[in-house]
Design brief:
The chain has 110 residues and is an all-alpha fold. It is built from four helices and no strands. Helix 2 crosses helix 3.
């Protein structure tokens, strides 16, 4: 049984963490878009080379690898936040279903 207190905590969690969740998503999306920019900047440092060589330089560049590490962290934080929000949402939905079932059972017994 899910208590009313549990539901209050879940709703409070969703409310109190909305800003952090939005920031995690924004960080992730920014870094995903920036991957293309950084790759292009690094490739532009090797314009005398063929495009496939430029890509090889970009992918092996320490700046690009560091960026990917940062992107990994951003993806983890965004997914963690999303999973915690989903868990709170599921708890609330289960509680709603339980409440509806209790109401239906109460009507059936009268």
């Amino acid at each position: 049984m899910i208590s009313d207190e549990d539901i209050e905590k879940a709703v409070s969690y969703l409310r109190d963490n909305a800003s952090d969740a939005a920031q995690a998503t924004a960080n992730r999306q920014y870094l995903e878009k920036f991957s293309t920019v950084l790759k292009a900047l690094i490739m532009s440092e090797h314009l005398a080379e063929p495009v496939n060589a430029q890509e090889r330089y970009a992918h092996s560049d320490v700046r690009y690898r560091n960026h990917l590490e940062g992107l990994k962290v951003a993806i983890f934080e965004d997914e963690k936040s999303r999973n915690l929000r989903d868990a709170a949402d599921v708890k609330i939905e289960v509680w709603r279903t339980m409440q509806a079932t209790l109401r239906a059972e109460g009507k059936a017994h009268t």
